[in-house]
Design a protein that fits this description.
3 domains, Rossmann fold, 17 helices
Length: 571
């Protein structure tokens, strides 16, 4: 109702202006032949009506139901007053024999009636209040004269009034229904917005939970990985070594699951910065094939790269993640046959495909496999470990690259997963491959290396101390930033720093590394190991050139870092 009255109020000023102009023309055309004082009084009444309705129009809009009803009644009375004034012209200016005046009067009244259909049908009581008083007097006067032409005019006027009322009612219903539909849509939009906000809050709560749970769960798993790495070097009998190897495999599975949760949380949080560059498919595919060949060979699968030449415009890290996840899935779920990585040319684009001869995916499941935590029934029953995040990560990473992941699969035949990326010109300068020095004998390459370990978890400190001692390093373990400063004040000079990011107190591992470097006056090789998923300070550490490993960190990665520290090379 408020909207209908608002529309009426918006139409009111121009309609009242038309009333005033036509009233002046009617007065000027008929005053010489009519009673002058009656014509003047009629024009004055018309002017007062227009002024009063304009004054009412300028009032503050109604905000309550009672005020809306009063405003509606006022509008009906104003429309009725206008209708009565125009209807009275049939008594003032309709004379026998004065065809010009009669013609002018009929045109003015019927035209104003037609105008009321467009200006007043938002509220039918106001429309009827104007229409009937304005036209019925003309019909009555015409019928009163009794001759055939006037009788026809009277009947035609009545039919015209009925037609206007009928069409006006239909138009009014259509307009009111459209308004109702509009407000229903607005209400639905409001509900959807509220539901979206709830979903966003739930997603944020999920991300906070994952961050907290990931940090707390990673701590003991990281300690377990350290102890397992130490145990593997000390076991001598075959049976125990087999058990320890199985423990290591279980720890690696946990690490993959944590990494999947980390990746999906980062992608959902939108914290990954996409850096587009020309990427060499040949180099990437060679690295990935080399990485997955041992795993494929264990299962008796053939693994190959076909026509992987050319350059694409993409973020190299995201592209590698997509191709690695697709290859990992293909090798994991293919029991016999081949897995191939290949490239197809399509106009100005390159299509990268990962094909396998696995069990295939039913048409009904092909959309669902890209949802997080979704695993097919036959995959779960086969005992394949995972959280069902690999393809969800692929889909999100592809979206960040401005493309999408497509799948073409047939049950019992195999699957082909693909992404399409724009071609790029080969880089003018390609960085030379880093020369990797031959590995030194185990235990000798890290002997007497002074390593500072900073972590507020006693279990992790014990695990690091045991592992580093087994590698013949000289570990110094501290639980806080303050303890590190005390050691530095006593003249301690570490050659490498391994620090947890989140420490007890107000300082982080990043702060501690900076303090060590400041105290020694040199960029001591350092690395951060953390269970945090997303943190502004963590990104600050990465931007500062300090590598970050997420718990549980594999002992092999720690050993690689320490070797680079011994050589003085970047971590």
């Amino acid at each position: 109702m408020a909207e209908r009255l608002r529309i009426l109020g918006r139409n009111n000023p121009p309609i009242l202006f038309v009333h005033l102009v036509l009233a002046g023309l009617m007065w000027a055309a008929n005053r010489p032949a009519a009673s002058p004082w009656l014509a003047d009084a009629w024009l004055l009444a018309m002017g007062l009506m227009v002024a009063a309705r304009l004054a009412l129009h300028r009032r503050e809009p109604a905000t309550t139901a009672a005020a809306l009803r009063r405003q509606a009644r006022t509008f009906v009375m104003g429309s009725g007053a206008a209708g009565l004034l125009w209807g009275s012209t049939a008594l003032l200016y309709f004379w026998p024999g004065a065809l010009e005046q009669q013609f002018l009067l009929v045109v003015a009244l019927t035209g104003m009636g037609a105008g009321a259909v467009t200006s007043l049908i938002m509220y039918m009581p106001a429309f009827y209040a104007y229409l009937l008083p304005s036209l019925l007097p003309l019909a009555g006067v015409s019928l009163f004269y009794g001759d055939m032409p006037h009788a026809a005019l009277g009947i035609a006027t009545l039919v015209y009034a009925l037609a206007l009322g009928y069409f006006g009612r239909n138009f009014s219903r259509a307009l009111v229904e459209s308004l109702m539909l509009r407000y229903e849509n607005l209400e639905l939009v409001g509900e959807l917005r509220a539901q979206k906000q709830q979903a966003d809050e739930a997603n944020a709560a999920k991300s906070r939970f994952l961050a907290a749970a990931s940090h707390d769960l990673r701590q003991p798993v990281h300690a377990l990985a350290l102890f397992n790495g130490t145990l593997q070097r000390r076991v001598v009998d075959y049976q125990t070594a087999h058990v320890v190897a199985q423990m290591g495999a279980a720890v690696e599975t946990l690490e993959r699951m944590f990494d999947g949760l980390l990746d999906i949380s980062r992608l959902d949080a939108g914290v990954l910065e996409v850096r587009l560059e020309a990427c060499d498919l040949a180099g990437i595919s060679a690295e990935l094939v080399s990485e997955f060949t041992p795993l494929a060979a264990e299962k008796g699968l053939g693994l190959s790269a076909q026509d992987m030449h050319g350059w694409v415009w993409a973020d190299r890290a995201l592209l590698e993640r997509i191709m690695r996840n697709l290859l990992a899935n293909a090798v994991r779920y293919t029991d016999a046959g081949t897995v191939s990585l290949r490239c197809r040319e399509t106009a100005s684009m390159l299509r990268i495909e990962v094909a396998d001869t696995g069990p295939g995916i039913a048409d009904t499941d092909q959309a669902a496999i890209f949802q997080e935590f979704h695993q097919l029934a036959d995959q779960r029953s086969a005992g394949r470990q995972g959280l069902g995040l690999g393809l969800a990560i692929v889909a999100r990473a592809a979206h960040l690259l401005g493309t999408r992941t497509e799948v073409n699969s047939t049950r019992g035949v195999g699957s082909v997963f693909s992404i399409t990326l724009p071609r790029a010109r080969p880089a003018t300068q390609v960085a030379a491959a880093r020369e990797v020095p031959p590995a030194a004998p185990v235990g000798g390459d890290l002997e007497r290396l002074e390593v500072l370990v900073v972590d507020d978890n006693p279990g992790i400190l014990k695990g690091m101390q045991t592992l580093l001692g087994d590698w013949r390093c000289v570990p110094t373990c501290c639980e806080s930033h303050t303890a590190v400063l005390a050691f530095l004040a006593e003249g301690y000079r570490p050659q490498a720093v391994i620090a947890d990011f989140r420490l007890a107190g107000e300082h982080t591992g990043y702060d501690t590394i900076l303090a060590v470097r400041t105290a020694l006056g040199q960029a001591v090789p350092a690395i951060i190991i953390t269970g945090d998923i997303v943190s502004e300070r963590l990104r600050e550490a990465e931007a500062g050139g300090i590598p970050v490993l997420h718990k549980p960190a594999a002992p092999a990665k720690l050993r690689s870092f320490l070797r680079s520290a011994r050589r003085g090379a970047p971590a």
